Amino acid sequence: MTNVEETTAPIVVGVDGSESSIEALRRARTIAEAVHRPVRAVTAWHLPAFTGGGALAYGWDPLGDAQLVLDDALLEAYGSASPEGVTTEVVEGTTAAALIAASEGAFMLVVGSRGHGGFAGLLLGSVSAAVAEHATCPVLIVH
Fold this sequence. Notes:
Blueprint: H1 4-8, E1 11-14, H2 19-35, E2 39-45, H3 62-78, E3 86-92, H4 95-102, E4 108-112, H5 126-134, E5 139-142
Parallel strand pairs: 1-2, 1-4, 2-3, 4-5
C-alpha cells in the first residue's frame, strides 16, 4: 500500500527572482517530472523592523511586489505556459523561516546558492545555509 503523502509531497522551491532561484525552479521541475511530484514555488516577504509600517503609507505593496517577483521568475524559468503540477505561494515572514516551515512534509526543498542580498563572494547565502541546517526534508542547493 502506498502512503498518500509519499506520492503527493511537493518539491518546494524558494524563489526570490535571482538567477540562482530561477535555475532552482528549472532543476525542481526536472526532478519533479522524474519522481512524479508537484512543485510548490514559495516567495516570502516581510517588513523590516525599522519601517514601523510607515512604508505602506506611501503605496508600497509588499505582498503584491512579492507576487510579481514570483510570477516573473516562473515566466523566466518556464516560459508562458507554467507546467502542470506547479503551484505558487507568497508567505509573510523571513525567507529562511518561511522555507524551513514549508519543508515540513515536503519531498525536497530546492534553493539557489545565492539570492539578491549579502556578499557576492560567499559560496552560500544565509538562507541556503539556514535551510540546509534546519529543513526537515532533503535540501538541494543549486549553484
